[in-house]
Amino acid sequence: KLYKIATIPGDGIGVDITEAAIQLLEKVAEVDGTFKFQWENFDWSSKNYKERGYYMPPDGLEQLQKHDAIYFGAVGWPDVPDHISLWGLILPIRKYNNQYVNVRPTRILEGTKSPLTQCANKPEDLDWVIIRENSEGEYAGQGGTTHENSPHTIATELAIFTRVGIERIMRFAFETARSRPRKKLTMVTKSNAQRHGMVLWDKVFHEVAKEYEDVEWDKMLVDAMTVRMVNNPQSMDTIVATNLHADILSDLAAALSGSIGIAPSSNLDPTRRYPSMFEPIHGSAPDIAGKGIANPVGAFWSAAEMVRWIGKGELDHVADGLMTAIENVTAAGIKTKDLAGSANTKEVTEAVCKEVEKV
Amino acid sequence: KLYKIATIPGDGIGVDITEAAIQLLEKVAEVDGTFKFQWENFDWSSKNYKERGYYMPPDGLEQLQKHDAIYFGAVGWPDVPDHISLWGLILPIRKYNNQYVNVRPTRILEGTKSPLTQCANKPEDLDWVIIRENSEGEYAGQGGTTHENSPHTIATELAIFTRVGIERIMRFAFETARSRPRKKLTMVTKSNAQRHGMVLWDKVFHEVAKEYEDVEWDKMLVDAMTVRMVNNPQSMDTIVATNLHADILSDLAAALSGSIGIAPSSNLDPTRRYPSMFEPIHGSAPDIAGKGIANPVGAFWSAAEMVRWIGKGELDHVADGLMTAIENVTAAGIKTKDLAGSANTKEVTEAVCKEVEKV
Ligand SMILES: CC(C)[C@H](C(=O)O)[C@@H](O)C(=O)O
Ligand SMILES: CC(C)[C@H](C(=O)O)[C@@H](O)C(=O)O
Questions:
Q1: Contact state of B157 with A196 under an 8 Å Cβ cutoff
Q2: Can you tell me the distance from the alpha carbon of A84 to that of A74, in angstroms, rounded to the nearest whole number?
Q3: pLDDT > 90 in chain B, percent
Q4: Buried-exposed string B226-258: b where 16+ CB fall within 10 A, e elsewhere
Q5: Average pLDDT, stretch B251-276?
Q6: Helix B345-358 / helix B13-32 crossing angle, nearest 10 deg
Q7: What is the 3-state secondary structure (H, E, C) of A225-251?
Q8: Residue whose CA lies nearest to ligand 2 atom number 9
Q9: How far apart are CA A336 and CA A355, in angstroms?
Q10: Which residues contact A287 (CB under 8 A, 6 or more apart)?
Q11: Interchain CB contact of B156 with A (< 8 Å)
């Protein structure tokens, strides 16, 4: 079986870790022997934007359609304003491809440590999956500026929440919670201050909750949620939050579980009409770009989730094996600096490739 | 000299800690001997809302005008939807009284510990003051609901940013940074995803920065900011962020410095045309309300900031003395459970009152 994957390495360390992920996935396919990857690379970077004036060509979004999945590195570079790079590349891809779910698991990997004193030696203390609404809310893309270049400029951001959008993310979140051993969902909101969109969010949550009586749930305000993540990480399992809230909470979650460099994300179109996209949650990290020292673990974990998704249940053992290989390597102390190790990207990649041959 | 203070204990532990703060401030005035407080209490609680149908009477906001400051406990109770209690009480007070700055300092107090392994024994590692925009942005209060009770409901939240609003908060933030030894400001944004309001925020920041060449500054995206707070707390000092971002970051900051129970907040009208309001950042905490075990430290620190504010420079020594008294008590191990102690509210209060007599 052949899987067609579009790769968009993007900027900075996105390039290093995409290369590492391809190398690893080629190894995985070789070892397994029942499937192959066909890669198509898209050079939609900030560097090329500076030269050409665009990230994607006009038919860019269509070009992605012939692929089974998209593998994304990172986008953003200091010489292009961030809102240009993001609205020119990653955000339209998420939106056009109906990727309304963003799944962001994180946990303390074998051989790594949480920066929290209470979790320092207990990996089982922090094991979360954040379900991020990925299509609307604060990222609806509306709003504008009036009286630009005047002393009384006004700029607005319009967050839009729809019943349809909320219902589908809540169902996905409950299904995820149900599929995990603890069957526990924490729903995050800010309905005290945001009294329209967040109140609808609350209301639809309660309706959907009735269909999942076997799932235990609770509710948190987003500000108090950060406190609970620090003080009581054991008390949570699956978490559902809006586009912006989950963006913030997932970075915090990764940091609390050891490093932003380990966390993966899956931008899913659960209807499978469009390709889904897989990317580590870290950015392009200009400060360490090109030095060959980026942590590839988030990229590898994202690759594992991509394999799981394209396999539609038939490659779960491959994805699981890949995760075991990654954790065997971190457990053996072959880790980059952010995880208190001294290995570089290449060393970690080769070590994981070797493990893949064994597991 | 007589200072008129309006107290609004509100709900839950708001009542306990307001009582403790009044007891302490009475002691402070008695020991100092040059000034007195005149208290007026407002019973604007959720309990009374249930009975009367309103939090404040129609002339509530006017009644507050004859006071030099407002001392606020906490608002919110499980049987009233949060958006009703907040938009019925705390948010209109902030808005009507031109309290466009919310100052939220936090640091590791003597005798307490950060939950971060790297900070566990180094109080100087975490010492921040967050300047929160308190009048507009995501709390502008606009937005609405269309097609309510239909399968295609749409709800919106409109965040509004004005040049005037941004300019004044940036100036306040730069002044704060300048007044502190490190002269360092970190500006938080999400201008990659929010391309109108946040872009204006960025732009005005750069303009104002030119007036403060002695202040060193850097910029962070709000999601990455949570990672930096966990990984590199030493690298920051003064922080400025929007209403919602700072709401989230200040809860996280308090948790990382030891407990949400210690952090104060000052809602300031820097023009002094209207009374400013002082409140701990924690909420009404229904789970421990009425048990006499709430941590009064956040309330005391807020009280110290109130004294500083109403004194207009003349009571700084009193406020400083109060902070010393608080830290002498935490250093002596007289702390509530959230700070790993076993004292109750009364014990901590009495200990701080006794210290005030000494310092
Ligand atoms: C790059 C940016 C648009 C993005 C987001 O805010 O969604 C990133 O922070 C993420 O978490 O995927
Ligand atoms: C009570 C609520 C409106 C409030 C806010 O969101 O501003 C609280 O979380 C705070 O931090 O003061």
A1: yes
A2: 14
A3: 94
A4: bbbbbbebeebbbbbbbbbbbbbbbbbbbbbbb
A5: 98
A6: 10
A7: HHHHHHHCHHHCCEEEECHHHHHHHHH
A8: B247
A9: 17
A10: none
A11: yes
Are the beta carbons of B197 and A161 separated by less than 8 Å? no
Give the start-end residues of each E strand in chain B: 2-10, 36-41, 69-74, 101-107, 127-133, 137-142, 145-146, 154-162, 184-189, 216-221, 238-241, 264-268, 276-280
Would the CB atoms of B196 and A143 count as touching at under 8 Å? yes
Task: Give me chain B's average pLDDT, please.
Answer: 96
Closest C-alpha to B180, from B138, B252, B131, B230: B131
SS3 B242: coil
pTM reported for the whole predicted model: 0.97
Q: CA A215, A218, A219, A225: dihedral to nearest 10 degrees? A: -110
Alpha helices (runs of H) in chain A, residue ranges in sequence order: 13-32, 46-52, 60-63, 82-85, 91-96, 163-179, 197-209, 222-231, 243-257, 297-310, 316-331, 345-358
Q: What 3-state DSSP class applies to B322?
A: helix
Distance CA A182, CA A179 (A): 9
User: Tell me: the pLDDT tens digits for A160-174?
Assistant: 999 999 999 999 999
Over range B269-290, report the average pLDDT.
96
Contacts of B193 in chain A (CB under 8 A): 83, 86, 91, 138-139, 244, 247
Q: HEC string of B198-221?
A: HHHHHHHHHHHHCCCCCCEEEEEE
Q: DSSP state, B67?
A: S
Asked whether residue A334 carries a pLDDT value surpassing 80, the answer given is yes
Q: Are A205 and A166 in contact (CB under 8 A)?
A: yes
Determine which residue's CA is closest to atom 1 belonging to ligand 2.
B86
| A165: amino acid identity, one letter | G
Measure A193 CA to nearest chain B CA, in Å: 6
In sequence order, what are the residues at sequence separation of 6 or more whose Cβ sits closer than 8 angstroms to the Cβ of residue A339?
A112, A258, A259, A261, A262, A295, A297, A330
* Distant-in-sequence, close-in-space partners of A209: CB < 8 Å, separation ≥ 6: A170, A174, A215, A217
pLDDT at A13 over 90: yes
Instruction: Tell me the domains of chain A and their CATH numbers.
Output: 1-100+275-359 (3.40.718.10), 114-143+157-257 (3.40.718.10)
The residues that bridge with A40 in the sheet, in sequence order, are A6
Position B109 pLDDT exceeds 90: yes
**Residue A103 near residue A265, CB atoms below 8 Å:** yes
| Distance set, CA B16 to CA A193, B23, B261, B277, B291 (Å) | 24, 11, 13, 18, 9
Helix (H) or strand (E) holding B298: helix B297-311
Q: At residue A149, does pLDDT exceed 90?
A: no
Q: Record the tokens describing residue B104, joined without a space.
A: 């939220």
Tokens representing residue A273 in the block: 């009409």
Give the number of other CB atoms < 10 A from CB of residue B67.
22
The backbone torsions φ and ψ at residue A105, rounded to the nearest 5 degrees and listed phi first, read: -80, 155
In angstroms, the CA A337 to CA B342 distance is 40
Look-up of token digits 């586009």: A243
DSSP A117: G
Helix (H, G, I), strand (E, B) or coil at B144: coil
Q: What percent of chain A stands above pLDDT 90?
A: 94
- One-letter amino acid at B159 equals A
Residue A243: HSE in the Cβ half-sphere, 13 Å Cα cutoff: 24
User: How close, in Å, is residue B152 to chain A by CA atoms?
Assistant: 6
Instruction: Using pLDDT thresholds of 50, 70 and 90, give the confidence band for residue B192.
Output: confident
Question: What pLDDT is stored for residue A123 in this prediction?
Answer: 81
For residue range A244-285, list pLDDT tens digits in order. 999 999 999 999 999 999 999 999 999 999 999 999 999 999
Q: Is B222 on the interface with A (CB under 8 A)?
A: yes
